């Protein structure tokens, strides 16, 4: 997924390409105007975020990735211990594995809200259910659990702060603004594609420039995806994979 700064930069680059090519001549003036207005709103929201020192240097996605890695790591360790010849360690691994898997598909693949709830409940289980608490100690996972707990708390707090500071009067959040902009972006691209299919020569320049830009951003997204475990790659992310 694009970080907010990358998202707005991509849309600004698209807008600039279109403006240089003359939206009126390309018959995409209204679509360009709508996207431009939404870009202005999101850009203003992001600038307000930067004015807040509490969250300006913290990206929720980065913290989310850390907690993903923590729960993936813990689950891998406890599953390995289920094969241990030591019966006590094997039993501890089995108990912890069951406590994780009862929350369904890999927790790291859940939506943000579902993952928050699952991790909150799981961490509560580990701290209050005696057999699970003992199993954490037996397998030496205290540091892992502390890291997971800290990352989950940080994600919840920072995500909440981002939403509060992202929107005037707290009525809309940055995610809703992004979704609106993505729809307007899609409308613009689809309009260009429709016209280009009927009049290729007129739209040759704008199509070429958009394709070059989109290819560059898609490469950025792919490189980032390749830096995380396969189990994390199925989470839904925005990828501007429009090639005309």
Notes on the structure:
The longest helix is centred in the C-terminal third of the chain and has 26 residues, at 200-225. This protein is mainly α. Helix 1 (4-21) packs antiparallel against helix 3 (29-50) and helix 4 (60-81) packs antiparallel against helix 8. Residues 164-172 and 228-239 have low confidence and may be disordered. Helix content is 75%, strand content 0%.
- Shape type: elongated
Q: Any idea what the radius of gyration is?
A: 23 Å
Order of helices and strands: HHHHHHHHHH
Classify the helix fraction into a percent range. over 70%
What is the subunit organization of this protein?
single chain
Cα(first) to Cα(last) distance is 21 Å
Q: SS-based structural class?
A: mainly alpha
Given as residue ranges, the uncertain stretches (5+ residues, pLDDT < 50) are 164-172, 228-239
Largest sheet features: none
Instruction: Give the percentage of residues in beta strands.
Output: under 5%
* Total number of strands: 0
Overall pLDDT score = 82
What is the number of helical segments per DSSP (H or I, 4+ residues)? 10
């Amino acid at each position: 997924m694009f970080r907010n700064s990358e998202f707005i930069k991509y849309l600004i680059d698209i807008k600039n390409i279109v403006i240089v090519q003359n939206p009126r001549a390309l018959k995409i003036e209204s679509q360009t105007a709508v996207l431009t207005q939404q870009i202005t709103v999101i850009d203003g929201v992001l600038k307000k975020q930067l004015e807040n020192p509490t969250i300006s240097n913290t990206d929720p996605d980065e913290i989310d990735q850390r907690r993903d890695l923590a729960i993936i790591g813990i689950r891998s360790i406890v599953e390995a211990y289920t094969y241990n010849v030591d019966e006590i360690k094997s039993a501890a691994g089995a108990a912890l594995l069951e406590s994780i898997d009862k929350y369904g598909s890999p927790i790291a693949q859940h939506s943000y809200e579902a993952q928050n709830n699952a991790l909150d409940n799981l961490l509560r289980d580990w701290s209050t259910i005696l057999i699970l608490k003992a199993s954490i100690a037996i397998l030496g996972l205290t540091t892992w659990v502390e890291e997971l707990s800290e990352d989950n708390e940080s994600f919840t707090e920072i995500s909440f702060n981002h939403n509060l500071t992202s929107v005037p009067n707290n009525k809309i959040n940055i995610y809703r603004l992004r979704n609106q902009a993505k729809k307007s972006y899609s409308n613009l691209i689809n309009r260009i594609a429709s016209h280009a299919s009927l009049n290729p020569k007129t739209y040759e320049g704008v199509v070429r420039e958009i394709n070059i830009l989109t290819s560059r951003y898609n490469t950025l997204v792919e490189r980032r995806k390749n830096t995380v475990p396969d189990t994390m790659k199925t989470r839904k992310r925005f990828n501007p994979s429009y090639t005309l």
